[in-house]
Amino acid sequence: MPECWDGEHDIETPYGMLHVVIRGAPKGNRPAILTYHDVGMNHKLCYNTFFNFEDMQEITKHFVVCHIDAPGQQTNASQFPSGYQFPTMDQLAAMLPSVVQHFGFKSVVGIGVGAGAYILAKFALIFPDMVEGMVLINIDPCGKGWIDWAATKLSGLTSSLPDTVLSHLCSQEELMNNTELVQSLRQQIGANVNQSNLQLFWNMYNSRRDLEMNRPGTVANAKTLQCPVMLVVGDNSPAEEGVVECNSKLDPTQTTFLKMADSGGLPQITQPGKLTEAFKYFLQGMGYMASASMTRLARSRTASLTSASSVDGHRPRICTQTNSSDSVGQVTQNISHTMEVSC
Q1: InterPro entries annotated for this entry (predicted)?
Q2: What is the DSSP string of 235-282?
Q3: pLDDT digit of tens for each residue in the chain (343 aa)?
Q4: Count of CB atoms within 10 A of residue 38's CB?
């Protein structure tokens, strides 16, 4: 593999071409950070604020980053021809091994938002050996019922596509206040994502099936994510119910649940500092990002506990608990490995 694949690539997969953007070069045997955006967005709209945040550079210098754009969602994408069959959510997940194999990644740590979180979770269920960890923001593991489907169709008849998608991305409070963020998103969704292609992605996401996960021990042959997972949701997010449902279906010894205060539907945009710090702790719990490579603030919080072992032999897990609005929190050890925090 070349020293650096930095730049844009079109990767052929069994279900069509996939637009991929690589930042940096592989670092030894470390996993790649692989991102997947939400519907109505692409990797730039969804992740630029987060990955351009100053403290995030401390992480990305240690990992290669691979951004995935769903078919036809990248900036300046050509419109799909009439009759084009957009890949199903299962097929979108099945496209990802082609990317991992093309670049020779040993494994990945996924970061997904909304539809992207669903796709990455499906990928981790089907190809667990390729995944070391998952950060799933605003995930809804449940399929659409008839009532939900009808409500979505009705909304599509009475609202423009950008406004329909905004109701998925943002909280009602954000929409009612018509914040600068909402205004900017409305403009960018209309200008940067091909509307015909977006409609196809939106329709497919709203046709998704249940991920059919169950917490180990609850049913025979329960299927769940086998890697460490951090679930993230804003305390005022339209996705809160879905994320709580997902938390109930994951192994509590492998799962971290992070509920972010003062955050609506887009914590990676509105709270990049908090999310960056939580991501550092998550990577550190997986055995990466030693304290020497973390910020002075983070080191002061974690130094006394980074060598602590878990009671059941798993890698140390870090959890945060705080009521402060300006930090992720004080680090403690949690015997159940599940943390529910408001930060």
Answers
A1: AB_hydrolase_fold, NDRG
A2: TT-TTHHHHHHHHTTS-TTTEEEEEETT--S-HHHH-HHHHHHHHHHH
A3: 445 578 999 999 999 999 999 999 888 889 999 999 999 999 999 999 999 999 999 999 999 999 999 999 999 999 999 999 999 999 999 999 999 999 999 999 999 999 999 999 999 999 999 999 999 999 999 986 544 544 455 555 447 899 999 999 999 889 998 889 999 999 999 999 999 999 999 999 999 999 999 998 788 888 999 999 999 999 999 999 999 999 999 999 999 999 998 889 999 999 999 999 999 999 999 999 775 455 544 443 443 333 333 333 343 333 433 333 343 433 333 334 445 455 5
A4: 28
